[in-house]
Structure formats: C-alpha cells, structure tokens
Amino acid sequence: MGRQRCGDSSHATTRALRPHLLAGSMQQPSAAVCKAHRRGEELVEVRPCASTERHAIHAWVARQNSMLACPETDQPRSLSTEPAAKLNANEHEMAPCGVADLTASVPSFPSGSCSDNLAWLDNIRNSAAIQIHQPHMARNPRTNPLSTVDGMMASEMWLQKHIQSFDTGNRRKRKQVLEDFLEYVKQSSLSGMEELFSKEAHRFLLRLTSWFSVTLPLLYALPLQLKVFLVFLEFREQSVVRAFFESGVVLSLMSTLVTDFDCTDEVRCLAVLVLHRLALHGRTCKEVLCSKGLIPHLTECILDGLKWETLKCAGLLLCELFRSNPKYQEDITKTFHSLLESHRRPLVQRVALSAFSALVEEEYAGPEWPDQLIPRLLSLMDGHDMRVCSDSYTFLCALVRSFNCDTKLWEFAREILDSYAQDVDAWAQLEVASERAARGMGPTASQRIADRLRTQAETEILRSPEGCNYTETARGEAAFVLKLSLVMFLTKRSPELCRDLVDRGLTETLLMCLLDIAHPLRQAAVLPEIHRLQLLSKRARQIVEGILVKRELLRAVTLDQFMAAGSHEDFARVRLRLRSLQRGQQK
C-alpha cells in the first residue's frame, strides 16, 4: 500500500515539474508541487526521474555555461571546472575574466531519484555561480548605471556621494559637483532622472533649488545652475515639474528677468528657457506662472534686453503662455500691442511682430485682430528700420491670407498709386537722370560706390558724405519697394482691384520706375512685377507693348538684360511715349 502511494507521489511530482524543467525556468515551483514533493520525501523509496527531465536539466546547465563565456575568447566556461575571477569589493569592478568567484563548486549532476534532482536544482539556484554578473555588466557607474551594489544602483550611489560633497563643500566645490553632474548625465543614455538616479535625483534637486535662491543676489554660477535645471526638465517628468513649483524656485527664476538683480542677458535667456520648459506641461502650469506675474516680468525683460536671442526666447515664451490659456490671452495680447508702439526700439517691435505672425499662422488670432493691427502695421512700414518694415509687410500678407481682409487695404493701395502717379518731381527726376547719363556727365551714385568698394573698406565709404547719402537713398528705395510689393500682392488676389488700379495708372507708374536709372534697386524690383501684371491684365499688356515696342526689351528678365537690350535713343523714345500716354490720361 505504501509502495503504491510512493509511485503515485513520484508520478505526480514529475508531472507537476515537467513544464518547469522543459522550459529551463529558474522560478520556484508552485505550492502544489512543493507539497507533492514533501509527500514523496516522507517515503523510503522514490522512483527514478524520467530521462526527459534529466535532459532538460542538462540543457539548462549548458545555457548557463554559455552565459558565462569569457569576453576574450568567447568560449563557454564550465560551471564546475573553470577557475573563478576574484571580485574587488573596494572598487566594485569585475576581474578581467568577467566571472564571479566560483570557489564554492557547483554540486555535481545527480543520477539518482527525482528528489535528488529537486534538491540539486534548489542548491544550484541559490549558488554563487548563478548570482554573478555577465562580463559586459561590470559595476562601473559610467558604463553601466543599472549595475547594483547592495541593492542600490551604481549611478544612485555616485549621486549620493556627490550630494555629500555638495553638502559639506564650499562654493567652488559645489560648482565642481554641478559640472561633474552635467558630464555624467551627458555620458548616460537613459530616459529619465528617476530611472537614472532613483530617489537621489529629488534630494539633489531640492538642494539645487535652495542654493539658486541663495546665490541669486550674488550672481554666482547662475548659468551653470540654470543648465542643470534644463537637464532635469529635459525628460518632462511630472514629479520633477511638481518639485520646481513646490520649492518656490519659480519666483527666483522670474526675478532674474527684471532689473532688480541686473542679471546678464545669458542668465535671462537661460531662465526664460527653464520657464518655457515648465510652461510646456499644460494649462495648469501656465495659469500658475501667469498668476505669479510672469507676463509683466517678460515684458520688462524684452524692453530692457540687449541681445536678440534673449528677446526672441521671451517672445516665444509669451506665445506658449497664450496657447490653450484663455484666462490670460487678453493680457498677453495687450502686451504685444504695447510692444508695437512707435517709440519702442526696433528689436522690441520685431519681437511683437514675430509673435503675432506665429499666432496667426497657428490660427489663434481673434476676429478683431485685422481691425486692430492693420493701421499700426501700415504706420510701421514708414519707419526707418528696414527689418521692422519687412516684418510688417510679411505679417500684413499673413493677416490678409488668414482673414481674407483684402478690402481693408484697398484704400491704402489706391493712395499709394495716386501719390506716385501724380508726383511731378519723380517724372522730372526721370528726365534729368536720363539726360545726364546720355551726355556722359559721370556715373551714378551707385556706380561710384561700386567702384570705390574695390579700393576702399566698406566702413570708410559709409562714413563719407556720399556713403551717408547713398544709405538714405537705399533706405527710401527699399521702403518704396515694400509698399509697391504690397500693392501687387493685393492686385494678384483681387481681379476687381487689378482692373481699378490699371485704370488709375498702375502700369505707367511701374514703367516710370523701370526707366529711372537713378534708382537701380527700384528698377530691379519693378521688372518682375511688370511681367506679372501683363499676365493678370490684358490692358496692362497692351500698354507695355505699346510703350516698350522693341522685342528685346519686352523679353528681358533681369535688369542687366533690359539695360543691354536698348540704346540711349531707344530709351529716349520709350520715355517720350510714356510721357505722351501720361499726359493723355491726365487730360
């Protein structure tokens, strides 16, 4: 009766252990299996284990031997015969062979009963041979941050050691700790501070935020500290963002933007970048930042900043605060309008124009924006800074494309055309410049400047009276080209406006600018517009063909081709026909 019970128990144990042995699993058997095994151990005789289980155990041992391959020879080391490498307990590094100390030999493979096999399996599972690290997983915190020593990651231990140095060191030592931290993170390849340093990351961040508030009045190592903040926020971990707000360092970051601490533009730019990273975490963070006064702080930073990079970053942060933040959108819009006022510096105006353009392209603009912005943008196009004029023109075109508000600019186009078409001085200047060039009374101002550039430095030419006059002339030509480009932009969008402007003398005005050799910049800009106008209006094409007549002049694409296609007599006849047409229209 007992022998039959023994057989049943042995078979039950074998059936329960078969999935574990065949899969080579190193996990503990289930409770039912252990109970059956204990029942089998109580008997005196146990039936031998089947050959299938024995082969599975042999295969598992072979796999473990292959995992312990030496990196130099790539040959497997036996669990029971290879010499062991000694572990350096002080440096936490593996010996060259890459295998742990195997002096505690692995028990030999049993050839007896199933209970002996189970005992051997439990013994080998708990042996030191199975608990070693592979050669490529050496305990070096820089090459393997995930290696563990006494339950802690090596990177965590590294940061813990540096935190102690930070706590006990002076300012120079703390600065060195920050530099080492940046270098360490740069060499790692993990995807988060918590993954790399675990809880030590929050301990270190708490010390950094406190030290920043202390060193802010002293202006000590602020760029370095802000770079460390950027590294913490790079992985966009919610716990890190929460720590920034709870520590109160956000208020210290805002203080760097105003003139109270007189921080450099580099510090302001880095502080704006840190605040931008915080604002990227959603509407709640944006509302908290705005409620603490970030908008007026950014406005003061833009008005007082000197470098374009700082002003540009501040403008981008204002745009980010505007997005998905309806509670403070009106305040930000008023800020942008105040930055566009005529007495502001050109750099400040460009920041507002860039911000408005970005929001219009992203369809954040309100329906009242065209009525509010178009008059101010047209006045900016008459300014002295060409970059502001160019940005205003670009923004006007974007505004028209987004809102289809062409009709709001039609009156401006008619006024521009009438002012140039009825400018008697411009027509007289055309004749005087042409006669002087025909008589050979000397090159034009642009030609003289080009000749002097070959022999003199550019700075010397700009300081000369002739250079100053040429600069003013070029600025006036550029402003005229921008306004004329806006008129042509509206003409191409509306056939009705195109017919109206052609009847008002748009074609004749463009031809007059093309023949004015005293303004080469204007000539080069007008020639392509004449070709476009001929495609838009049949009457404009008839006027151009009737005045230029000569085929080479009609086919010229560039200004050089146009000037080389005709002689002085040809251009004189062209001017005569143009004056006759202009007088006929005036009558």
Automatic annotation (TrEMBL):
Gene3D superfamilies: Leucine-rich Repeat Variant. InterPro entries: ARM-like, ARM-type_fold, DUF5578. This is Uncharacterized protein. It comes from Symbiodinium microadriaticum.
